[in-house]
Design a protein that fits this description.
Elements: E1 23-28, E2 31-36, H1 41-47, E3 54-55, E4 62-63, E5 76-80, E6 86-91, E7 101-104, H2 119-122, H3 142-154, E8 170-181, H4 185-196, E9 201-204, E10 221-222, E11 225-226, H5 227-239, E12 244-247, E13 250-256, E14 260-266, E15 281-293, E16 297-299, E17 312-314, H6 315-323, E18 332-337, H7 341-351, E19 355-361, H8 368-376, E20 381-383, E21 385-391, E22 398-403, E23 409-413, E24 416-420, E25 423-425, H9 428-432, E26 436-440, E27 445-450, E28 455-457, H10 467-478, E29 486-487, E30 512-514, E31 519-520, H11 521-529, H12 535-542, H13 555-566, H14 570-573, H15 587-591, E32 603-604, H16 608-613, E33 617-621, E34 624-629, H17 637-650, E35 653-656, E36 661-666, H18 670-677, E37 690-696, E38 702-712, E39 715-720, H19 725-738, E40 746-749, E41 754-760, H20 764-768, E42 772-773, E43 787-792, E44 795-800, E45 809-815, H21 819-832, E46 836-837, H22 840-849, H23 890-893, E47 898-905, E48 917-919, E49 930-940, E50 945-953, E51 962-966, E52 971-977
Parallel strand pairs: 1-7, 8-9, 8-15, 9-12, 15-28, 17-24, 18-19, 18-24, 19-20, 32-34, 35-46
Antiparallel strand pairs: 1-2, 3-4, 5-6, 5-7, 10-11, 10-29, 13-14, 14-15, 16-25, 21-22, 22-23, 26-27, 30-31, 33-34, 35-41, 36-39, 36-40, 37-38, 38-39, 41-45, 42-43, 43-44, 44-45, 47-50, 47-52, 48-49, 49-50, 51-52
Helix pairs in contact: 4-5, 4-10, 6-7, 7-8, 11-12, 11-13, 17-22
Length: about 1000
C-alpha cells in the first residue's frame, strides 16, 4: 500500500478524486494537519490515522467516525475560523476542510484521550434507560442546590458561541415545476427526463458533487462509463440547460403542505477566505408543483457487543473514504456483515493494497457472486459466524469471532472493522409530506405507500434495488424521455435488523443501537419490561432516535428489538415520527436577515417622510410607525391634540389611515364566505355600499372589526384593525381551507398596496372634490357608507364615504406608490381652508366622543358584541356563522355580564387612568369587589370635560348611578352614562 505522506500516511497514491497538489492546513485539538482540497474533516483525519474524534454523551466512551454522510452520530466537532465564527456539533463527515480551519473535539475534559467523564462508563449500571425518571427525587432540597446544577452542566453537546455572529445569511423564494431531492442515479435520470419536457427543474443534493452512492460504488457502469464520471457529465449537461437549476451542498430539510419545501445551501462553509458579499448559508423556500424523492437509503450498523469503538465504521463509509478521498481506514481490516454490499468494500480495499483479515458473515449463504469473488481475491470468509466482542481502548485492535450457536471463540487482530446490516430506505421527506408507509416484510423495511401530495419516490428510497428498474422508474417520474442504461457487477442480497448473535436478551453486554445517546439493546428491552409497548413510548424512555441524527441508524434496530421481546409484528409496534429538519439547520439560516434592526422591522406608510417633515411625533402601533400628533411651536401633546380635535370638528382634518389592514376577498362565493366569518349579513349588501362588521371567534367573543365595502358581486374590500391584519387573514385562510373548502374564494392581503388618506370634518367634501374624477360625491349621489372605484388625481383609486370621527368623512385609497403625492396635494388644499393634520391620539379622542370602540383596547377577549353595545351587528336571520353557537352559551347571555358604558367624572377636570378598577363601595373591606375597569379615557376639548369608556358588570342597568374609581392618592366618583357623548342624533356624519 503506497501513500503520499504529506497529506497523511493512510492516503493511497493514485486513489481517490482529489488533486494532491491542492492542500489545506488545519488543526485538530491544537495539532496541525495537512488535507487535500475536497477532503471532509473525517477523511482528512483518517488519512493521518486519527480515529478518536469524540466522546459519547452519557458514558463518555471513546468514539470515532461511523459513517461518511449526514447520518453521522459520533464525530460531532467544534469548527471555527475565529472566536466569533465558531459552530459546535458540526458533523466531521459533512464539513469540508478549508485552509486555516480550527477543529476541536467536544464533550471531554481535560482532553479527548484522557476524559474524566469516562468514569460514567464504570457507573453505567446506575445509568440504565429511564434512570432520570426514578432518581434525583430525594432529598427534595437537593434538587435546586445539587442535582439541577450538575445536570445543567452535563447537558448538551458542544458549547454555543457567546459572540455575535458576524456572518450574514440569505433567503430566496422560488417556484418550480419539478423539484428533485437527491442527485444519485435516480435523481439525475429523473432530472434529465423532466428537463426534456421543458419543465422548470430544481435538482438538489447535499454533497459537494452529484452522484449519491456513486461516490463509493466503484462497480456501477452507466452508459459505458464509470458511474461517478457519468454523474458529473450529466450534471454539466443539466447545468447548461436554461430550465434547470442544480444545487449542490444543499439539503432538503423539510417537506411541508402544498408542495412547499425548505432547503439549506452551504455557500461558504468550505471556503478559506469567503467574499464579504457572500452569505454563509442560504435558505431556499421552494413551492413545487411536483416533487421527486430520490433520497436513496442509509446503511445500518451491526448491533453486537462493544460495537462502538473507534475504527468501527460502516462498510459504505470505508468505501467512500477510499474511492472518493483516497484514504484507507486501516492496514489490517476486518468486515462483519449480514449483507452482500460489505463484500464490495473488502474487494476495493484488497485491490488498493489493504490487508483484509476476514469477512465475518452472520448468514450461512451469502450471495454466490460476492462469495466467489472473495475466494478469487484470497479473502477468508467466515459464514454463519458472528463478531461477539471487540477490544482496544481508544481504537479497535481485535475482534472476537464465534460460530453462530457455538461456544468456541477466536480473536482476530484488526485495526479497523467494517460493518453492514443492510440498507434502510430514506423515507424521511416522504413521511414529512404526510405520506403513509407500508412494511415490506420480505426485506424488513418500510416503503412509501399512500401519497398525500403530488410527489413520487424513486430508486432506493422506494425499495427499487435493481439498477435497470431504478432507471426506468426515474424516467417515468420525470415525465419525459431519457436514454440511460446501466449495470452493477453484483446483485446484493441479505440484511438484518435487530441485535446480532451475542447481544440477545440473555447477554449482559453493551451492544449500541443509538450511538449518540448511548442506547443499547438491553435498554430497549428494559423499556419494554417497564411497560413501554409503543415505539413512541420506548423512544422517550430510552431516548433512542432522539439525538441530532434523529435515529437514521437506530430506528429500525430499536423497532426490531422491541418487536422481538413484545412478540409482535413490527408494524404493530409502530413507527416513530419523522420530523423536520432532516438534518440540523443553523439559527442563522432560519433567521436570515431578521436580526438586529430587522428582527422586528418598523413599517412606515408612504406618507411617513412627509409627516415627519410636518413635525409629527410618532408612536409604535404593532410594527407600524404612526403619526401620533402634530405639535406646533410651543405646544405640548395635550395642547396639540386639543387644537386638532377642535379643528376637525369645526373645519376638517387629514389623517393617515394606511396602516389599517386590507384584505381583498374575491370569488363567486365571496358573500357566502363573509356571511360565515362575520356576525352580520353580506349577501344583502349591494355593490357600491359598505357596512361595519364584527368578527367573532368560535366562543362568541369579538375577534376583530372593520368596514367592508362591496365593489362588485364577487369582490369585497375588507378592512381590519391595524394590529389585527395578519391574524385576521390567517383566521380567514384557516376557515377557508379547513371548514369551508367548498367555497370558491381567494384571499389576498393588500394592506401595503393601498395608501389611505382619511379626510374628516364639515369641509371634507370640499377639500377632496377637485381631486376626484368621474364620480359625483354629493350627499345625494354618494351618501354615508358608499364606496366606488374611481380616478383620483389621474390614478386608479377607491373612495369610501365613512367616518371614525362622527363627522362627514371620506377615505381616499390610492396605490401606495402615489400615496405621498396625493397626500401632499390634499394637505396643501386642506391648509388653505383652515384644516389640520391630526394623529392617532386625536383619532382616539374623536372616536371615543362618538362611542366607537377599538378592538383590543375596549375589548379584552371576553367581550361579546352585545357586551360592547353592538348587538345590532349580529344578524337575527343567519343560521350559521363562526361564533353563533358560542353566543348562545348560557354564560354569554346571563344577566350581570360586564358591558361597555360611558363614564363622566363628578369633577369634569378629572381624567381617569386607563386600566383603573371600578367599585360600588369605596369603603368596602379588602379584598374589594371589582365591577370592571376603565378601557378608554380622554380629555374632550369639544365637550370641555373628561370622558371615559369602561367595562362594568351589569353596566347598562347602572345608567345614572354613581360608582367609584379608587386610586393611590384618592377615590374618584363617576356617573354611568351611555357611550355616545357627542352628537347623539348622528346628524353631522350625514353632512
Amino acid at each position: 500500500m503506497s501513500s503520499s505522506s504529506n497529506s497523511g500516511e493512510f492516503r493511497i497514491k493514485g486513489a481517490g478524486r482529489h488533486t494532491p497538489a491542492r492542500t489545506a492546513r488545519f488543526t485538530f485539538d491544537g495539532k496541525s494537519y495537512t488535507a487535500l482540497e475536497g477532503d471532509t474533516v473525517a477523511s482528512a483525519l483518517l488519512a493521518h490515522g486519527v480515529h478518536l474524534l469524540g466522546r459519547s454523551f452519557k458514558y463518555h466512551r471513546p468514539r470515532g467516525i461511523l459513517t461518511s454522510g449526514p447520518e453521522e452520530p459520533n464525530a460531532l466537532l467544534d469548527v471555527s475560523r475565529d472566536a466569533a465564527r465558531r459552530q459546535p456539533n458540526v458533523r466531521a463527515t459533512v464539513q469540508e476542510v478549508f485552509d486555516g480551519a480550527k477543529i476541536a473535539s467536544q464533550n471531554r475534559w481535560p482532553s479527548l484521550k484522557y476524559d474524566i467523564g469516562a468514569f460514567n462508563d464504570m457507573l453505567s449500571p446506575f445509568f440504565a434507560a429511564g434512570f432520570y425518571y426514578k432518581t434525583f427525587m430525594w432529598p427534595r432540597e437537593a434538587w435546586h442546590k445539587l442535582y439541577e446544577p450538575i445536570i445543567r452542566r452535563a447537558a448538551g453537546l458542544g458549547e454555543a458561541p457567546k459572540e455575535a455572529d458576524p456572518d450574514h445569511y440569505a433567503s430566496r423564494y422560488v417556484h418550480c415545476d419539478v423539484l428533485i431531492a437527491g442527485a444519485g442515479v435516480a435523481g439525475l435520470t429523473a432530472a434529465l427526463s423532466a428537463a426534456a419536457t421543458g419543465s422548470k427543474v430544481i435538482l438538489v443534493d447535499e454533497q459537494p458533487e452529484v452522484g449519491g452512492a456513486l461516490h463509493f460504488d466503484s462497480s456501477t457502469v452507466i452508459d459505458g462509463q464509470n458511474g461517478f464520471d457519468w454523474a458529473q457529465a450529466m450534471a454539466a449537461k443539466l447545468k447548461a440547460m436554461d430550465n434547470v437549476t442544480v444545487l449542490t451542498r444543499t439539503t432538503v430539510f423539510g417537506y411541508y403542505n402544498h408542495g412547499f419545501l425548505g432547503l439549506v445551501e452551504r455557500v461558504t462553509d468550505h471556503v478559506a477566505l469567503p467574499g464579504r458579499d457572500l452569505p454563509r448559508e442560504r435558505l431556499w423556500q421552494v413551492r413545487a408543483k411536483k416533487v421527486v424523492l430520490a433520497t436513496g437509503s442509509i446503511e445500518r450498523h451491526m448491533v453486537f457487543a462493544n460495537n462502538d469503538r473507534p475504527g468501527i465504521m460502516l462498510a459504505s463509509a470505508a468505501r467512500s473514504f477510499l474511492n472518493h478521498h483516497g484514504v484507507a481506514v486501516g492496514r489490517n481490516v476486518g468486515v462483519y456483515t449480514a449483507h452482500d454490499s460489505a463484500y464490495e468494500a473488502a474487494f476495493d480495499m484488497k485491490r488498493a493494497g489493504v490487508s483484509i483479515a476476514a469477512i465475518v458473515d452472520s448468514r450461512s449463504h451469502p450471495g454466490d457472486g460476492v462469495l466467489a469473488e472473495a475466494r478469487a481475491l484470497g479473502i477468508d470468509v467466515l459464514t454463519g459466524h458472528a463478531v461477539t466482542d471487540t477490544s482496544g481502548r481508544l481504537r479497535i485492535n481485535s475482534i472476537t469471532v464465534t460460530r453462530n450457536g457455538g461456544a468456541n471463540a477466536r480473536k482476530i487482530k484488526v485495526d479497523a472493522l467494517l460493518i453492514s446490516a443492510g440498507w434502510t430506505p430514506s423515507v424521511h421527506l416522504f413521511s414529512q409530506s404526510r405520506g403513509k408507509l407500508r412494511f415490506d416484510e420480505a426485506n424488513q423495511r418500510f416503503l412509501p405507500d399512500i401519497y398525500a401530495q403530488n410527489c413520487i419516490s424513486v430508486g432506493a428510497c422506494n425499495g427499487t434495488d435493481d439498477l435497470a428498474d431504478l432507471i426506468d422508474e426515474a424516467i417515468a417520474a420525470g415525465g419525459g424521455a431519457a436514454v440511460v442504461s446501466g449495470e452493477n457487477r453484483f446483485e446484493w442480497t441479505g440484511g438484518m435488523i435487530g441485535a446480532a448473535e451475542g447481544a440477545g436478551p440473555d447477554d449482559a453486554v453493551k451492544a449500541f443501537v443509538d450511538f449518540q445517546h448511548d442506547v443499547t439493546a438491553k435498554d430497549i428491552r428494559l423499556a419494554v419490561r417497564e411497560g413501554m409497548h409503543s415505539i413512541e413510548h420506548i423512544k422517550r424512555f430510552t431516548t433512542n432516535g432522539m439525538a441530532s441524527d434523529q435515529g437514521k441508524l437506530s430506528n429500525m434496530h430499536g423497532l426490531a428489538i422491541a418487536s422481538e421481546i413484545l412478540d409482535r409484528p413490527i408494524p404493530q409496534v409502530g413507527l416513530t415520527t419523522f420530523r423536520a429538519p432532516y438534518t440540523p439547520v443553523t439559527y442563522g439560516t432560519l433567521i436570515a436577515h431578521s436580526r438586529g434592526d430587522l428582527f422586528d422591522p418598523a413599517r412606515k406608510t408612504p406618507m411617513h417622510a412627509l409627516e415627519a417633515a410636518e413635525g409629527a411625533e410618532f408612536e409604535d402601533v404593532g410594527n407600524w410607525k404612526r403619526a401620533w400628533y402634530f405639535p406646533k411651536r410651543g405646544e405640548d401633546m395635550h395642547a396639540a391634540v386639543n387644537r386638532e380635535c377642535r379643528t376637525v370638528r369645526e373645519v376638517g382634518g387629514v389623517f393617515d389611515a394606511s396602516t389599517l389592514g386590507k384584505i381583498e376577498v374575491v370569488g363567486p362565493d365571496a358573500a357566502k364566505f363573509l356571511n360565515l366569518l362575520y356576525t352580520n349579513a353580506w349577501d344583502t349588501l349591494k355593490p357600491g355600499k359598505s357596512r361595519y362588521g364584527i368578527m367573532t371567534r368560535e366562543d362568541g367573543f369579538i375577534y376583530d372589526d372593520g368596514v367592508v365595502g362591496r365593489l362588485a358581486e364577487d369582490r369585497f374590500h375588507v378592512t381590519t384593525t391595524t394590529g389585527g391584519a395578519p391574524r385576521v387573514l390567517q383566521h380567514m385562510e384557516d376557515y377557508l381551507q379547513t371548514e369551508f373548502p367548498h367555497l370558491n374564494v381567494w384571499l389576498t392581503s393588500t394592506t401595503e398596496q393601498w395608501a389611505v388618506i382619511a379626510v374628516q370634518g364639515p369641509k371634507a367634501r370640499e377639500i377632496i372634490a377637485p381631486f376626484i374624477e368621474g364620480l359625483d360625491i354629493s350627499n345625494e349621489a354618494f351618501p354615508h357608507m358608499s364606496v366606488a372605484e374611481c380616478t383620483i388625481m389621474g390614478v386608479p383609486g377607491r373612495l369610501f364615504r365613512m367616518s371614525f370621527t362622527g363627522e362627514l368623512g371620506f377615505e381616499v385609497n390610492v396605490p401606495a406608490d402615489f400615496g405621498a403625492a396625493v397626500w401632499k396635494a390634499i394637505w396643501e388644499r386642506a391648509q388653505t381652508m383652515g384644516a389640520c393634520l391630526y394623529g392617532t391620539e386625536t383619532m382616539h379622542v374623536l372616536r371615543a366622543e362618538k362611542g366607537y370602540i377599538i378592538v383590543g383596547q375596549d375589548t379584552d377577549g371576553t367581550v361579546t358584541p352585545d357586551d360592547s353595545g353592538y348587538g345590532w351587528a349580529v344578524s337575527k336571520k343567519k343560521t350559521d356563522f363562526v361564533g353563533i353557537r358560542g353566543l348562545k352559551r348560557p354564560d354569554l347571555v346571563r344577566e350581570g355580564r360586564k358591558q361597555l358604558v360611558g363614564l363622566f367624572t363628578k369633577d369634569p377636570k378629572d381624567v381617569l387612568e386607563e386600566g383603573a378598577q371600578i367599585v360600588a363601595d369605596p369603603n368596602q373591606a379588602k379584598p374589594m369587589t371589582m365591577l370592571g375597569h376603565v378601557t378608554s379615557s380622554y380629555w374632550s376639548e369639544t365637550l370641555g370635560r373628561s370622558i371615559a369608556i369602561a367595562l362594568v358588570a351589569g353596566g347598562r342597568a347602572k345608567m345614572g348611578s354613581t360608582l367609584y374609581v379608587p386610586m393611590a392618592d384618592r377615590t374618584i366618583s363617576v356617573e354611568v352614562t351611555d357611550m355616545v357623548f357627542f352628537d347623539k342624533e348622528g346628524g353631522r356624519i350625514n353632512g
